[in-house]
Amino acid sequence: MTDWLRLLKPSGSPEELGPLQLAWLGDAVWEMHQRLLLCRKPAKSKELHKTVVSRVKAEAQADALQMINVFLTDLEKDFVRRGRNRVGRGSRKVEIATYAKATGFETLIGWLFLKDPARLAQLLDRLEETHPTRPIATNKNEPY
Question: Family, per the entry (predicted)?
Answer without folding.
Answer: Belongs to the MrnC RNase family.
